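dumping this here before i forget
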Amino acid sequence: MKVLYVIAHPDQRSLNHSLMNVGIKRLEENGHEVRVSDLYQMEWKSNVDEDDFLNHEKGSRLNIPDSSGRAFKEGKLTPDVIAEQEKLKWADAVIFQFPLWWFSVPAILKGWFDRVFASGYAYNVGEYNETRHGTRYGEGIMEGKRAFCVISAGGKQECFSERGVNGYIDDLIFPINHGMLFYPGFTVLPPVLVFRGDSKRPEVFQNASKAILERMDTIETIKPITYRKQNFGDYKMPDVTLKDGLEKPGQTHFDIHISE
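structure:
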């Protein structure tokens, strides 16, 4: 496989970079080809502004979806954005690795999604009618490509349990897995989660390395998260709401969007 590794951590000596190196080594040992987008090393520009759209008239009204869509259609996105889109086109699988900061991705990675997933490229693609609502949630530019996150958190696993004070980890990362990855069509694999990432205990790195190695060995075969596709009968149109009775007993909130 061709694997793109997108990492967002400012320190090359970090747990995240060390684990990435473990993962890349195993991927290459297994015959996969790997490219890396190290966002801090690249000094990635995270904020969206009029400079992102080379055909935008400076000082005029900036509507991000409209300006983004026109720039994508006319080939007027900036070279750094186009380069990342080309990497995504090349890749069969994409790994996003980052620390969980303030219950979300680091700003630099959010900016990668904001800028690279341009209108017309990753969203607002496809027809809208009584049975379809665009090409998204299981369809889209990333359809057929696998993706997953490697996420480190400073707290204990118990703090991220269903009764943990931080909230259930699956709920916290639903907007990332479902909203950023499944939305443009990725087949989303379960995340690799690393808890107590700030503890500096040797066993944290040892256990996390074991999990990373296992994932890299099964990247082609592990069962994905079975999110419900939007346009394949599970949702009522045009409201795009889940049809009554499809959820299983006990399924609530985000879980109802997983079919099994």
